[in-house]
Automatic annotation (TrEMBL):
It comes from Tetradesmus obliquus (Green alga). This is SET domain-containing protein. Residues 100-110 have a biased composition (Low complexity). PROSITE patterns: SET. Residues 1-232 form the SET domain. Residues 98-148 are annotated as: Disordered. SUPFAM superfamilies: SET domain. CDD domains: SET_SMYD (cd20071).
Length: 465
């Protein structure tokens, strides 16, 4: 096994990916090609049906001459023999990518690390296009990819069921910087990516650049620690019970991640950096947990639908009624959090608040749609609302698109309200830069960094109210 990542059996949850060496936040972990991918229009219902992947996967797996993908598919399926599995060595890949971009005049050659759509895997495997009996075989593992290994329809459908990944659109800023005509929705299977286990408080972020799946660490990770991604989309902003129901239904496992344990107060082992937070949340009484859950359901089942309807019909009086109810909920919740503040650290409060993130986001939107008081007052109120949402995301969803978008919005408001040279604007600019580094790495050329930031500012305009 080569590379920074090792695939290993994890206690109690099957295979997983662990760090061979210590990894720093914002380090690139994986940039992988799909075994198969289908595109659709870029909207929430746009991604093609995952069932359509099955015949395509059978054909692709049996036709293509990419031993790593074949081995990864086989491993995904039977999960036992890791000896044939090679996770790509990110350092080798980087060198190859740099080498190929320096010798290429393509417009994307200035995009470094995971921003290259010409996927690193491809570079990595070039030169391997020989038959298995070729005496130049690069590794002892390759000859095993014989006809007997051909993927069947039944195997493919199970692989798709548990491992397919769909997204409404690829990374918008990277698409803009690459000059992609139009971002697409995708459904596909990225075998190496599918090896990562889920956590509701993941230490990695993932997204698509073209067809390449990019995975980047958002926390420092010690050698031997597991690397995790979130399988949840928007459902990550829900209490443990609701998240677990989604994961059970969609992927058939019971999530026992640190955040779930932290919320359920049923401890076992916990990642080191969460231990402190965890101990304190452990002391949060049952009523507070119950209040979070009640608030969540009230927001999701009653207030959010009414909010969206009022916005659609530009019904100001209904919007004001929803806003008043949201404020009442928020008032009681923050009083409850305050009551137990002595036993809750700042990050514990943020992790708990993440369960009802929608409440805070709706309050922000209300503030912008129905400003109260004079202009300066309402701008201050909006700034405070953005700050609160951003703090939650910075705790549970580092490097996510929403994190980057909200940081952009905070910067814009801070500049607007306090001026571009103010301490607030400077602090906001720093948060925006950090969110960017988490998502795109810290070693981008300055020009690319600036282009991405500009593209994200524009994307944030379109995607946030
Ligand atoms: Zn969990």
């Amino acid at each position: 096994m080569v590379g920074e990542l090792i695939c290993a059996m994890m206690e109690g949850k099957g295979r997983g990916v662990i760090a061979r060496h210590s990894i720093a936040a914002s380090d690139l972990l994986l940039c992988a090609r799909p075994a198969v991918v289908l595109e659709g229009p870029p909207d929430p219902e746009g991604a093609p049906d995952a069932a359509r992947l099955v015949p395509a996967l059978v054909q692709a797996a049996n036709a293509q001459d990419v031993p790593q993908i074949r081995a990864a598919l086989q491993y995904l399926y039977d999960g036992t023999d890791a000896s044939r599995l090679q996770l790509p060595d990110i350092r080798t890949m980087m060198n190859l990518a740099k080498h190929s971009s320096s010798s290429s005049s393509s417009s994307s050659s200035s995009l470094q690390e995971g921003l290259q759509e010409s996927c690193c895997d491809h570079d990595h495997s070039s030169g391997h296009h020989h038959h298995h009996h070729d005496s130049h075989s690069h590794s002892a593992a390759e000859p095993a990819a014989a006809d007997a290994d051909k993927l069947t329809e039944q195997q493919a459908s199970l692989l798709v069921k548990y491992n397919a990944f769909a997204d409404d659109y690829e990374d918008l800023a990277a698409a803009a910087v690459r000059g992609a005509a139009m971002p697409h929705s995708h459904v596909g299977l990225w075998p190496q990516f599918a090896l990562f286990n889920h956590s509701c408080l993941p230490n990695s972020v993932h997204y698509l650049v073209g067809h390449a799946m990019v995975v980047r660490a958002v926390e420092d990770v010690a050698a031997g620690e597991e690397l995790t991604v979130s399988y949840l989309g928007r459902e990550e902003f829900a209490p443990a019970g609701a998240r677990q129901a989604v994961l059970q239904e969609r992927y058939g496992f019971a999530c026992g991640c640190a955040r779930c344990q932290l919320e359920s107060q049923a401890p076992r082992q916990l990642q080191q950096q969460l231990l402190d937070t965890y101990r304190q949340v452990m002391q949060a009484p049952r009523q507070l947990q119950q209040q979070l859950l009640d608030t969540y359901w009230q927001v999701m089942q009653d207030l959010k639908p009414r909010f969206l309807e009022a916005v659609e019909h530009q019904d100001q009086s209904n919007l004001a009624a929803v806003q008043a109810q949201l404020q009442t909920l928020e008032h009681f919740l923050s009083a409850a959090l305050q009551q137990h503040r002595a036993v809750l650290s700042d990050s514990a409060v943020l992790v708990l608040q993440a369960a009802v993130y929608d409440l805070y986001e709706l309050l922000l939107f209300c503030e912008q749609l129905l400003p109260q008081g004079n202009e300066a007052e309402s701008k201050h109120a909006a700034l405070a609302c953005i700050g609160r949402c951003l703090a939650i995301l910075n705790c549970v969803s580092k490097g996510a698109e929403l994190h980057v978008f909200l940081a952009s919005r905070l910067l814009q408001h801070a500049v607007d309200l306090r001026g571009p040279d103010s301490a607030q604007a400077e602090a906001a600019a720093q948060l925006f830069l950090e969110a960017h580094r988490m998502r795109y790495g810290s070693q981008l050329e300055q020009q690319v960094q600036l282009e991405l930031m500009e593209a994200n500012k524009q994307a944030a305009e379109e995607f946030l109210m």
